[in-house]
Task: structure prediction
Amino acid sequence: MSQSAASELSTIAAQVRVCTDCELHRGRTLAVPGAGSETTDVMFIGEAPGMNEDKQGLPFIGNAGKFLDDMLASIEWSRDDVFVTNIVKCRPPGNRDPLPDEISACSAYLDAQIEALDPLLVVTLGRYSMARWFANERISRIHGKHRQHGKRMIVPMYHPAAALHQPSLRAVIQADFKKLPLILEEAKQGLADVDEPESDPEQMKLF
Result:
């Protein structure tokens, strides 16, 4: 990544921290722009900050974050190797699901982060971030299956918190994580091909 791109991520984070574009800003302690490598090819997108994240301004630092760290370690990755953010940057009251207008209000920040980072692999964690690329799909049907969107590979996965509530999902999430290094290599291999414009999401191929 160029220095200008790293600077752009820093600028976006500063804007997020003072954002008042939706009602969520009224109850926040700290906004949570995202964290991780500014030169990575891999971006994880969750749903919204929780209580611990709201207090510290960092994504995925509670129990779900510990499970995410374990899953990254299982494929010999770490937080330093990836960038982690959410579709909503402020904590919804009581950890409720993000509302459509809140997702819409934050969408420009996520768009800008994706453009600045320009990742080859995007992993969505949970159904709300999944819906950005997989509208009207069921996560139970497509988890772990990647789609090519332009030069990027998009992989929908269960949110790590789901495994805390449904222990049977732990093995499912672990199996999906095991696929990520190979999917990333496939995306890198695709860089040798002639660049093509972004595909229409409705025409994306499911692998």
The chain has nine helices and six strands.
